[in-house]
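User: Could you go from structure to sequence for me? I need the amino acid at each position, not a summary. C-alpha cells:
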C-alpha cells in the first residue's frame, strides 16, 4: 500500500488548470475534494459555536453568522478578531468585497455562532492571572454553547497542560456540554516545553475530540501536541482564508485551524443526516478516516488519522449505536455531570478498536519541535527557561497566544 509519511494517501485532488484563483490556492480544499463534497453537502442547517477571540463580519461571512455572545475578557486579546479566520475556514462563502471571487470555507452552508473570550495574554500580570483570564471566559462560553442550538463546538483558545491545572469550572463546563450531546473539537496545541509536547486543555479533557494539524504532504506539523488524547488530524498549515484587515486574505497555520476543519467536516455529515446523534456523526468520521500508514489503528501523534469528509458522505457505513460515544476516554454521563474523570466504556462494534501505544509498531511522527510555527519571543523565552529563570512566568504566556498569528496571503 502506497503511503506518505504518517498517513495513508487518501486521494489528493488536482489543482484546477485554469488561471490561478483564490480557490485554486486553497490546497486543503483541493486535497479534500471540496467541489465534489459541495455537490452532496454544504453543511446547511448546522450551527457551529466557535470559541475564539472575536469574529468580524467580513464579506465572505455574509449570511453565515448568527448571534453569539461576549464573555469575561472579550475584547482584551491582541487579536480581537482572531476568530474571523477560523470562522471563514469553516463557512466562507467565496464571495469577497463587491461579490468578487474569494476564499471558501469547507462547509459554506453552515452557520457560525461567535463566542468571544480572552486569549489570556495582555502583556502584564502573572501566569496565574493569564490562565484565570482564559478560564473565566472559556467555562461560561462552553456552557452557553451547550444550552444553544449549536450542534458542534470548536475551541480555538487553549492552554498548555504542563503549566495549567485545568480548573474545575472548565472541566465541569466540558462535561455539561457533553451531557447536552454536543460534539466538541479543540486543537491539541503546540509543545508546551521542549521535553513535554503534551496536549493542551481542553483537548486533553474526556470527550473532547483533540485535533492535530498536518501539512500538504500529510505529515504532522512539528511541535504539535502528542498524547493519548490526540484523536484526529486535519490540514493546518498554509491555509488561505478570509480574514479581517489588510488584503482581506490571510495564510495561517495552527491546530485551531485544523479543529475548525474537523468541525466543518462534522457539519457536512450532520447536514445530510440530521437525525443522527453526535455519537453517530463522530463514529462515521472515525470509521472513514485515513489512518496511520503502517496500518496501526492510531498513534499518539496523529490519533486515528486524517478526516475524509467526502468518503464519510459517499460511503458512511453503519453509524452504530446512538447512545455510545466512540472514543474510549469518555462514557455517556450521568444526568448531573461531575468534574471527576468518567469511566471508560467498552468500545462498540462500530467504533475504532482500542488504541495501541505509539511505540507499538506505529510511525514515529513525534519529531522534536522545530522553530517553525513559533515567534521569536517564544524561543527567547525558552532560552530563559534553559537558564532556569522565569520559565513559567514568561514561556507559557507567549506560547498561549503564539498560535494566533497569520500573514497576508
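Assistant: Here is the amino acid at each position, in order:
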Amino acid at each position: 500500500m502506497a503511503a506518505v509519511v504518517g498517513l495513508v494517501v487518501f486521494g489528493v485532488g488536482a489543482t484546477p488548470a485554469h488561471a490561478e484563483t483564490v480557490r485554486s490556492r486553497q490546497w486543503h480544499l483541493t486535497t479534500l475534494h471540496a467541489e465534489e463534497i459541495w455537490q452532496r453537502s454544504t453543511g446547511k442547517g448546522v450551527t457551529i459555536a466557535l470559541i475564539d477571540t472575536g469574529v468580524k463580519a467580513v464579506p465572505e461571512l455574509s449570511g453565515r453568522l448568527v448571534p453569539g455572545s461576549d464573555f469575561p475578557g472579550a475584547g482584551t486579546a491582541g487579536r480581537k478578531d482572531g476568530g474571523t479566520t477560523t470562522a471563514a475556514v469553516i463557512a466562507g462563502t467565496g464571495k469577497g468585497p463587491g461579490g468578487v471571487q474569494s476564499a471558501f470555507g469547507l462547509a459554506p452552508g453552515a452557520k457560525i455562532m461567535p463566542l468571544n473570550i480572552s486569549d489570556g495574554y495582555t502583556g502584564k500580570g502573572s501566569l496565574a492571572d493569564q490562565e484565570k483570564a482564559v478560564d473565566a471566559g472559556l467555562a461560561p462560553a462552553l456552557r452557553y454553547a451547550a444550552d444553544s442550538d449549536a450542534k458542534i463546538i470548536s475551541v480555538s483558545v487553549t492552554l498548555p497542560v504542563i503549566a495549567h491545572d485545568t480548573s474545575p469550572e472548565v472541566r465541569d463546563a466540558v462535561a455539561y456540554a457533553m451531557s447536552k450531546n454536543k460534539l466538541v473539537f479543540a486543537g491539541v496545541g503546540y509543545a508546551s516545553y521542549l521535553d513535554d509536547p503534551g496536549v493542551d486543555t481542553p483537548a486533553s479533557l474526556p470527550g473532547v475530540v483533540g485535533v492535530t494539524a498536518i501539512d500538504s504532504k500529510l505529515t504532522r506539523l512539528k511541535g504539535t501536541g502528542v498524547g493519548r488524547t490526540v484523536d484526529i488530524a486535519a490540514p493546518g498549515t498554509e491555509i488561505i482564508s478570509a480574514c479581517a484587515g489588510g488584503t482581506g486574505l490571510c495564510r495561517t497555520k495552527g491546530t485551531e485551524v485544523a479543529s475548525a476543519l474537523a468541525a466543518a467536516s462534522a457539519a457536512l455529515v450532520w447536514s445530510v443526516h440530521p437525525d443522527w446523534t453526535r455519537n453517530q456523526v463522530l463514529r462515521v468520521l472515525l470509521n472513514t478516516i485515513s489512518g496511520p500508514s503502517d496500518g496501526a489503528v492510531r498513534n499518539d501523534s496523529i490519533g486515528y488519522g486524517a478526516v475524509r469528509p467526502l468518503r464519510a458522505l459517499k460511503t458512511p457505513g453503519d453509524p452504530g449505536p446512538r447512545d455510545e460515544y466512540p472514543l474510549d476516554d469518555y462514557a455517556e454521563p450521568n444526568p448531573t455531570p461531575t468534574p471527576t474523570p468518567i469511566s471508560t466504556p467498552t468500545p462498540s462494534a462500530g467504533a475504532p478498536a482500542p488504541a495501541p501505544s505509539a511505540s507499538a509498531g506505529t510511525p514515529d511522527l513525534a519529531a522534536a519541535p522545530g522553530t517553525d510555527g513559533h515567534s521569536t519571543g517564544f524561543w527567547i523565552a525558552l532560552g530563559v527557561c534553559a537558564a532556569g529563570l522565569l520559565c513559567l512566568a514568561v514561556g507559557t504566556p507567549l506560547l498561549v497566544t503564539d498560535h494566533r498569528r497569520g500573514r497576508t496571503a
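One structural detail worth keeping in mind: The CA atoms of residues 30 and 123 lie 39 Å apart.
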